Amino acid sequence: LAPDLQICRKMKTSRCRKVREPQSNSAQRRVLDLYSWQRHGPWWQELQKVHSAFFFPFFLCPQQDGFWIYSEYCNNHLDACMELSKLMKDSRYQHFFEACRLLQQMIDIAIDGFLLTPVQKICKYPLQLAELLKYTAQDHSDYRYVAAALAVMRNVTQQINERKRRLENIDKIAQWQASVLDWEGEDILDRSSELIYTGEMAWIYQPYGRNQQRVFFLFDHQMVLCKKDLIRRDILYYKGRIDMDKYQVVDIEDGRDDDFNVSMKNAFKLHNKETEEIHLFFAKKLEEKIRWLRAFREERKMVQEDEKIGFEISENQKRQAAMTVRKVPKQKGKKRWWL
Fold it and tell me: The PH domain covers which part of the protein (predicted)?
């Protein structure tokens, strides 16, 4: 992979650079980040020791987190191709890329072919390691390293696929938001990218203390509250949101609650760690309460993993989702995707 990335890097630094750079350089930045990690990572020297049989531990060192650069690259591949397509409509960039190709004495191949190479190769690593493990004796000194390296790369590719699935799902989230009446505040996609769980519960919020029936949509970072229309039960009205980054989930036993002075069954609380505000929820069944508690744990885990690997939705992806929603005709009586 390094030679392909070197080409991209040299295109950036070549003397043909006097062509004005495009406004959006995020795709180029992903290429350079990937090149820098591969070429200048602390484990690079270990890979150069071809005489040593013990080169698999580099998969297991702390720098393995660098493999998440592949995830960022793969999920931005479509944006990169779209940006390239725009540039190739300008004759100046056509001449620039062709000059770079001739300067590097490269074969006549489309640039999007080079952009695709990292995507193809990251998918091959688990297959190659699995094949190597198959023909490595279990008593060989390399066996445990190969097995561990295979586990790491399978996890990386699994996470790449998961992120791809989430990015493909943002159109549905934007479409759902557009269907909710009286929406207020920021868009869901400004902070969230996944609907984790949804359901209807009774809800009491201090200082009002009045029991209300609401439909709750738990996304990463936030939970949206909606009210069903009295006649058209498939129509939702926006009634607020809860910032999950500021709240702690508290499981409570059945009995009487001192904060709200009410009897509780299948209940739990959300407690604001900064303002001491409390939300009290009542599930209809114990199984439903357990499912909600599990969903809250999943939400926190997702947020932590996203922070670790730097997952975010680009502004271009948000715009594309908004454009898709505008193109979709509204259909009466159509079943909602979240039901």
Answer: 194-301
